[in-house]
Amino acid sequence: FAILAAYTYRGGLRAPALVAVVKDVLIYVTVITAIIVIPAKLGGFEHIFAAAQTSLAAAPKAASTILAPAQFSAYVTLAIGSGLALVMYPHVMTATVSASSPNVIRRNMALLPAYSILLGLLALFGYMAHAAGLHPASPNDTVPDLLRAMFPSWFFGVCLAAIGIGALVPAAIMSIAAANLYTRNIHRVPPGVPLAGREETAVAKFASLVVKTGALLAVLLLPAQYSLYYQLFAGALILQTFPAIVIGLYTRWFHRVALFSGWAVSVVLAIWMIVANNFASTFPLTIAGTTVVAYGALWAFAANIIISVVGTFILDAMKIPRGTDHTSPADYEEEAGDRAASAVA
User: Fold this and answer.
1) What per-residue confidence (pLDDT) applies to 116?
2) CB 125 within 8 A of CB 27
3) Cβ atoms < 10 Å from Cβ of 341
4) CA torsion angle 111 116 120 125 (round to 10)
5) CA-CA distance, 97 to 345, in Å (whole number)?
6) What backbone phi and psi angles, to 5 degrees, belong to 151?
7) In principle, which of 26, 116, 336, 344 could form an S-S bond with 162, CB 3.0–4.6 Å?
8) What single string gives the DSSP state of each residue in 154-206?
9) pLDDT for res 189
10) Running along the chain, 345 residues long, what does each successive block of 10 average in pLDDT?
11) Which pLDDT value is given to residue 344?
């Protein structure tokens, strides 16, 4: 916590950007080494999957390494909904709009699948833990216990460093994004006067410290299960901003009141589905006599789109004013210039 607070307070967004290079090197070294060495020690992937299947089938709540047909819709919708929600988080927006040019964003997006493959390899660690006969005290101990059992102490230390620094980078960007939201949208609203650059930086630094302190207290004082609930609520709620923000970048067809109504209804619906299904991420919905289990946030997202479309037709028919669009062609000239320069290059 001290390292996180110090380097974000002093270096701002540049600090996690530089540390991310070290983080990626450590994580790639750890995962690639583990994906080669551990299967060699456990008899190969064929034995790992067979042992994991046996272990999961014998668990108090029987499971399998292969999805049952009834789980297909839940898996697919969770993947789609989580992917759409990911790009809406404020810290993702902060990192994206802080890029030096559109080409930097394009280059990172092109390399992103390689990182996603790395996450898929990490998921195999759970199967390896079953094959190794480990019985961790909690799911969070699975990866550390596996690495401790399979590697010498010096490399286990490297692995722990990768885990630790892997948590610092996103936490830093999240706290900076929260501080920006507060500084730009809340702090200066009462007086109605924009802060000077130096004052805004000072307020943002202090707000970032407050956010990190609150996160530390949550880790120390609240049950670990709450973090899963927070993540579940966050993904479900942030996804509902997708129509207004992302679709709004491509078309102005939607009426703003319809977009707001769709957002408001979908937020209430998403919270209700989560609570009604005992804080599960999926929700069973019966359509034409067929029950489909899907990511609850995606059901709410579908309602959001429907309300926004239908509401736009109704509000336009009622001739309700759409308001004034304050953007101008000049707002897009820099992007157009970058695209033209890229085309010439």
Assistant:
1) 80
2) no
3) 12
4) 90
5) 23
6) -125, 155
7) 26
8) HHHHHHHHHHHHHHHHHHHHHHHHHHHHHIIIIITTTT--PPPHHHHHHHHHH
9) 57
10) 82 82 88 93 92 87 86 90 88 83 87 82 90 86 91 92 84 87 75 69 86 87 80 88 88 91 94 88 85 90 95 92 79 56 48
11) 45
Find where tokens 């456990």 sit.
Answer: 42
Q: pTM surpassing 0.85?
A: no
**215-to-6, 96, 220, 230, 235 alpha-carbon distances in Å:** 15, 23, 9, 12, 18
What's the gap between Cα 322 and its chain centre?
A: 33
State the distance between the two ends of the chain, measured CA to CA, in whole angstroms: 45
- What is the pLDDT at residue 194? 65
How buried is 234 (Cβ within 10 angstroms: 0-12 exposed, 13-18 middle, 19+ buried)?
Answer: middle
Which residue intervals of the chain are DSSP H helices?
2-11, 14-42, 45-57, 72-86, 90-97, 102-131, 142-150, 153-182, 197-221, 225-239, 242, 248-250, 256-276, 296-317, 333-344
Angle at 285 between CA 282 and CA 286, to 5 degrees: 155
Q: Residue holding tokens 């590697």?
A: 151
For residues 261 and 28, give the distance between their C-alpha atoms in angstroms, rounded to a whole number: 44
Tokens linked to 298:
């995606």
Can you give the length of the chain in residues?
Answer: 345
**Sign of the Cα pseudo-torsion (124, 129, 130, 131, in order):** positive
Burial string for 148-185 (b: 16+ CB within 10 Å, else e) reads eebbeeebbeebbebeebbebbbbbbbbbbbbbbbbee
What does each C-alpha distance from 169 to 9, 28, 86, 270 come to in angstroms?
Answer: 13, 15, 16, 29
Please say whether the beta carbons of 312 and 254 come within 8 A: yes
Amino acid at 145: D
Rounded distance between C-alpha atoms, residue 313 and residue 112, angstroms = 38
